[in-house]
Amino acid sequence: TWTTAAFVEEAIREIRGKVGNKRVLLALSGGVDSSTLAFLLHQAIGDQLTCMFIDQGFMRKLEPERLVKLFHEQFHIPVQYVDARERFLTSITGITDPEAKRKCIGHEFIRVFESESRRLGPFDYLAQGTLYPDVIESADTNVDPQTGERVAVKIKSHHNVGGLPKDLRFKLIEPLRKLFKDEVRRVGRSIGLPEEIVQRHPFPGPGLAIRILGEVTAERLEILRDADYIVRQEINRQGIYHDFWQAFAVLLPVRSVGVMGDQRTYAYPIVLRLVSSEDGMTADWSRVPYELLETISNRIVNEVQGVNRVVYDITSKPPGTIEWE
Ligand code: XMP
Question: What's the stated role of this polypeptide (predicted)?
Fold first, then answer.
């Protein structure tokens, strides 16, 4: 029978056998897959592993700090923190089309990844948190026709975009490739990853940038990040985080009139998107208590400068999508 302990032991043996004394690069995303992967590799090869975290500036409030801290303090794994926030924001300025945003972020990611991996490298292997369903999906695209080995042509966290340059086509190391998501979660839990990572809701690669409709600006990012933080706080306070597939805030690029004290306000609306789903392919808007909506709405309007209205999205998927972009 399959046990996490046996898997970890076998994975470590396999990594050591494959890597030898070579160097491995891993791009952390903050999710359960890349975190578990980092742990396994670090156990197996210690400082032959370089973990890199590229901060695009589109993560949720406090998440980059928490991730780096967790790795340092709990796992004693050093993380190369790459602060690319300015770069990403500059590159996305003026772009309003959802797919153009994704492309722009994806290309920027590849560029940063490329220069950072040259700066920190050279590396022989790229570790990816490929899971069994991904292996099936990319069966032929990732195989070197000469050697039959799987090679990196894309970065998994940004699978919807751009490829790696030819001379950066690392050999792949994919210790999770036989696992399904729930097995990764079990392994993650068994090695001491906190529940907030193990059971984290899906979070899109382009992050908050696709939850700000229209143009992404520093001001809008700050507003959305604060509103989103309140949504999560209230849901956690109720102990219902796991009732949702995703639960988040979206910022609309329009403004409406409101009143605060004896002042007229003219500010952004925030949309609450709380959905249940099995796999993200279809989703149902969540019938949450009015009191929860009320608390979230009051807090956002009172605490987040620049927001004067909160609306609840009652559209299921289909016909709506989960994200607004
Ligand atoms: P939609 O909005 O299409 O989302 O109903 C379905 C699931 O996919 C996630 N999603 C993304 N994930 N990059 C990602 O890594 C993306 O560009 C992206 N767009 C949507 C979304 O959060 C939901 O879980």
Answer: Catalyzes the synthesis of GMP from XMP.
The contacts of residue 90 (CB under 8 Å, 6+ apart) are none
Burial class (CB in 10 A: 0-12, 13-18, 19+), 124: middle
Q: Say what the pLDDT of residue 155 is.
A: 61
Rg (C-alpha) for the chain, rounded Å, is 21
Atom of ligand 1 nearest to the CA of 246: 24
**Local structure of 242: helix, strand or coil:** helix
Distance CA 133, CA 60 (A): 27
Q: Do residues 152 and 4 lie in contact, with contact meaning Cβ atoms separated by under 8 Å?
A: no
Per-position b or e across 148-181, b if 16+ CB within 10 A of its CB: eebebbbbbbbeebbebeeebebbbbbbbeebee
Report how far ligand 1's centroid is from the alpha carbon of 204 (Å).
5
* Interface predicted TM-score (ipTM): 0.99
Pocket probe for ligand 1: among 34, 92, 323, the residue whose CB has the most ligand atoms within 8 Å is 323
pLDDT band at 321 (very low <50, low <70, confident <90, very high): very high
238 neighbors 276 (Cβ within 8 angstroms): no
Pocket test for ligand 1, best of 271, 313, 322, 325 (most atoms within 8 A of CB): 322
pTM, two decimal places: 0.90
The residue contributing the CA closest to ligand 1 atom 18 is 204
Domains of the chain: 4-197 (3.40.50.620), 211-312 (3.30.300.10)
